[in-house]
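Exercise 7. Predict the joint structure of the components listed below.
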Amino acid sequence: MKRRAFLTRAGGAALAAPLLLRPAGSAAAAPQPRGREAAYYEKLPDQKVVCRLCPHQCQVADLERGTCGVRENRGGTYYTLVYGQPCAVHVDPVEKKPLFHYYPGSQAYSLATAGCNFTCRFCQNWEISQRRPEQVRWIDMPPADVVRRARAGGCRLVAHTYGEPVIFFEYMRDCAALGREQGVPNVMISNGFIEKAPMRELCRHLGAVKIDLKAFTETFYAEQCGGRLKPVLDTLLTVRAEGTWLEVVVLLIPGLNDGREEIERMCRWLVRELGRDVPLHFSRFVPTFMMKNIPPTPPATLHGARRIAMDAGVRFCYVGNLLSDAEHTFCPACGKVLLRRLMYSVENAGLKDGRCRFCGEEIPGVFS
Amino acid sequence: MSLSRRRFAGILLGSGAALAAAGLPRGSAGGEGEASLVVQAVSPLLRRAGDDIPATAAREFLDRAMLALTGKGGRGQAWGSLFSPSETVGVKLSCLPGPRLSSSRALTAAIVEGLLAAGLPRRNIIVWERSSRELENAGYRISRSGLRTMGTDELPGGGYDGPVTESGSVGTIFSRIMDEVDALVSVPVLKDHDLAGVSISLKNMYGAIFNPNKFHANRCDPFVADLCRHPQVRGKLRLSVCDASRVQAHNGPAYFPRYAAEYGGLLVSRDPVALDFCGWAIVDGLRRGMGLPSLAASGREPSYIRTAGGMGLGQADGRRIRRLEL
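Solution:
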């Protein structure tokens, strides 16, 4: 594909983003979110509950909400307030998630509700993730509508993304189960901060999972995200063990998580525990939300991290949010370009039936 | 019920001995600075009849408390010493638990009367909460003009379209109502809080931000204090009027009759930290009477109060709090 064609396709993808629902203009324009009984919680005495969905394990008194802000105790019954109520709906290339080895070049019907169980100071989608359901304008879209709209829009898959899908677990699970029945696989783009049992349940329905590994220190998770590293690593192991397609993204932030020793430890762990074939993406940080005082990640840092990963044995490592050859998929055996990318466009340069057409090397992923 | 100035002075003089035996928690964080005054009334007249305090009692006791707090001779002078007619004043209620445990409507009406007596035009008063739904559930009627009674969610953009701002551990967006007001009256209900220990005046400010659910770890410490040292709060929170007519001594913040005490109390102070400190003592006292362990013994000591004292937001040292019982 020529450069001009590349750019045309990339521009088309950007223009295709049709709908980002803004915060409500008035109470009348923002109907109160409905409630639907949540999964994964236990009732406690005195009408309290403890949430078992994510490792926060919030104990929630009557009328209160968990850290996520979207699950509420009403008289001793725990409710999700966002079931079937997305506040953001787009059609995106799957490369934007990013998922590079899962139906490359396809469109993903992408949605999110309000809320998140983290408080990342660098969140790109904080206007969704850090708000409560009543602070956004949402639309009524039950799972059947999600799958129907995805098919009608020519989308190969549905992506639960932008905010944090863990906190709309029930909605995602039901969309994924229905999508699987109807040939529209669902993918989860997540921080991975979820308990093992709900993650395993999701894996029965999801086609792929992308986990943001925020850093490789507990300090970073505590200070920058309001979370913990260990449960995220456990989730990576769970997804891998369940056999669901998995990719990992690391956003490198200058001075906070981009040290050579930390990246080396991370890559060694990934290779040892997940194997060499899980694609790893290093993404470029850009200042936002509560982290506007740190400059964007230098390209050299990203390419250096990629080199560390490849040296550690990672076979597919990419650099994101930055135009470079490190977006392409190379055959790990012969080194030829198999999938050539520019922004969110992709050209098949040498992949055939999941193998390198030059040397026959099998390329892990879901390609057709 | 009315109170002559002479009788009022007598009450003030006689109240000191009773206060010494109040059994307040020992604080140490706020050891610097001047003593803070907390005026407290406890009377059967202040108990709720149904879901509200009798209007006459609310007005009378609030008037007495304000005179005692300010040293002024009349309602208009007392309120006028804290608020000027040119200012816009927000009256921040606490209405999460519904009608049985939300800020008393009668007490709120008395606060509004005080502000009007100080010369504020009606349009300069905003009685508010997070959402209009919460206000309505608590029995308030929404009014969007004149003397406004409304939730933040009535405003364009959902009411939280301002800049992201930080204060220590807290990163948030304030309600646009906080931008509009020059001064605040915090009107909490005295109650136990399952995670924070207690929720009184300081924690009432969680209702002024868009993401309060993010700040309940570690018994809300230091989050409550960090929020209240933000200039939007610290520079505006001028008076706290705590409705202790019915106190939830355990299992809050929702209303649970089993642990609710018909206390008949009212606490008023310019120092929210000192008021919270005194409120904490009342909750612990009521818990004792119910055979419950103290908040500290329950692992729910509201340490954010001491943290706030340590930040200089007020007095969290019981020895430096002047408690005046009416």
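Discussion. Chain A has nine helices and 20 strands.
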